[in-house]
Each structure stands twice: as C-alpha cells, then as structure tokens.
Amino acid sequence: MSAPKKVVLAYSGGLDTSIILKWLQTEYRCEVVTFTADLGQGEELEPARAKAEMLGIAPSNIYIEDVREEFVRDFVFPMFRANALYEGLYLLGTSIARPLISKRLVEIAHETGADAVAHGATGKGNDQVRFELSAYALDPAIKVIAPWREWDLTSRTKLLEFAEAHQIPIAKNKRGEAPFSVDANLLHTSSEGRVLEDPGQEAPDYVYQRVTRPEEAPDAPEMVEIAFEKGDAVAINGEAMSPATILTRLNELGGKHGIGILDLVENRFVGMKSRGVYETPGGTILLEAHRGIEQITLDSGAGHLKDWLMPRYAELIYNGFWFSPEREMLQAAIDKSQEHVTGTVRVKLYKGSARTVARWSDHSLYSEAHVTFEEDAGAYDQKDAEGFIRLNALRLKLLATRNAKFK
Which residues bind L-aspartate (predicted)? Predict the structure, then answer.
C-alpha cells in the first residue's frame, strides 16, 4: 500500500488514539483529520478537541459529532426489530456501533479529500473486521490503516515511552495497566481483558458501571409502559420521545433495577473465545417489550420465520457485515413483518428482571372469543379439531405401521 497523504482517524481523545495520531504523523508524514463520535458513551468529548489541537491538528480538521439519534434510529432500532441476539444472549452493543463510525469516517474522507481512514482496534479482536468491512463496502478504493497490526509498540512500556518522547500527556491513572478495557455507547457498556480474562473467576463488583447490582436494586417493583409503531418504540408511559431519548430513559430505569447484566464467553469472528461483561439495561427492557407486542400482533408463520432467520442476522452484524446485501435482504423481510407491530406493552422491572405483564393493540390478532374456556358462541367448532388431528397423524400412523413390520 502506498503511503497515504491524508488520513481520517477514529479518535477518542484517550491515550491510545493520541499515540496513534502522533504515530501516523511521524510514520507516514501525512495530514491527519480526527473524528470523535458521541454515541452516548457518557464522556465529555470537548477535551478530545483540545487534545487534538495540542497534537497539531488544525481546528478545521477536527470533527466532533453527536450521532446518538442516528445511532439509535438507523442502527439500533432496525436491529431490535429482529430481536437480534448473538449466540442467544448478546445484544450486540459494540458490533452495531462500528458500521456507523466507519460510515462517518468514509464520508469525512470524501468531504476532506483524504485517501485513507484509520482505527485503533487491535489485531486480535472483532472490531478491526467490522471497521474495515464497513469501510470497503462503502468505498472499495479507500485505504485502511490499522496501527496495532503495523507498529512495534507491542508493550505498555513502549507505548508510554513513545508518548513521553512526543510530549503526549499521560494521566497518572494511565501509567499502570488498567484493570480491564471498556467500550461504551448508548446501547451498552462492554468490559473485557485483564481481571476478566479468567472465565473461572467471578467478575469483581467494580467492573459494573451502568447497572446497579440486582441484590442492591430497589425492593419495590416499577412498571413501565412502552408504545410501539411498526416495531419501533415511540413513547414511554404515554410520553412521545425520540429514539435516543427513549433508550436513555430505559437505561436509567434498567440500571436502577439491576437489569441487563451479561457475563459471556463468546466466539470471536477471528477464531478465539473471549470473555466479556456487558451491561445493556435499556436494550434488555426494549427486547422484552418488543417481544411482548409481537406476541399479539405478529402472525405465527411470520414470527417463527423471524426467529429462524434471527441467528443468521445477528451473526452478520457481529461479524461486521452490516452493509452486506444479505443483511439488507434480511432487513427487508424483518421490516415487512413489522407493519402491524403497533401497540403498548407494560413491563415489570424488579431486581434484575424485566417481565412483560400486559400488552394491547388495535392491530392485535388475539381473539378472546376463540380461546375462552367459557361458551364461545360458535366462534370455534371443537369438532373441527378431529379432522385436523387425523390428517396430521396420517404419516405418523403409516410410519408406525411400516416400522412394526421390521421389528
């Protein structure tokens, strides 16, 4: 790959990406543009601007953007229409943020005339794959620089020495090894590495940042009502809200009641297993509520097909194929299924549990007249079931008769 002339860097303002910024300048002698995304990680982002300026980045080359609404509206909500869970448990909080970051990196590269983008993902993880597959899907000619796969700064000591040599400020709490690594956005907090690397040891309490431990959650349950239109949440307790505001409010409620903690050993796309502790309070409530409204508005055939497709859909997102044609094809089918997924769900929050206790909708397929144990006034003729059973039993009877001959 020829040396880039101008690079757009996914920049957090932290020590590692500041080292990457300076390394790009010294290694490639190139102009650097920084992009810092507010995905709801809960950190003040303006210090990233000051840090970038201190490292020689022109103010016009510093992009700091609030993308929370786009993140929830265009990435999180479409994923939740599918009830997506990777390996049956993981709500894909990190996975779903990467295509949005890559999208903006490529767009800013086009806006500024840059010929490359760069990220700070390591060569052992999934994020490098997600960033790069997304970038290439959006611009096949873009160059992608992954410093962790190129440089010789292979230890904490070397990283700190490089930082000191280039006058990069090092906070006191960054001089030692952090007890674990954190990635956060509006959907979740992910913690992994170091004290969490042994899956045989329980995660220490200090790992948890977003969710109250269930044992310490309020002793009284709380009810929350979530309204949906065409599969997307639109209101909480009767108050209409934007997508990001809804997720923020559900995070507050879920965090308070100890909801959304997951300790998972997962299979990374690159081949190894890793252990992560995830906190997804709002997402856990949202999944439960969405399932609740689908119970009365989604036809059984469509619902069962969705459940069959979901693991493949979730795997595509986990592996970085958000912008692939197969994900878009599945999304079209999922979105079609949501045309009548409109109504309200009441969820009970209590000590780590989010449980649907009521649901109602003008689009409901539920017919009390058909399922009642009382007199149904002719809505259903129970005698019809006899022929239904006979037809479905026919092949089983033929098999049993044949098999009895050869015992």
Answer: 122, 126-127
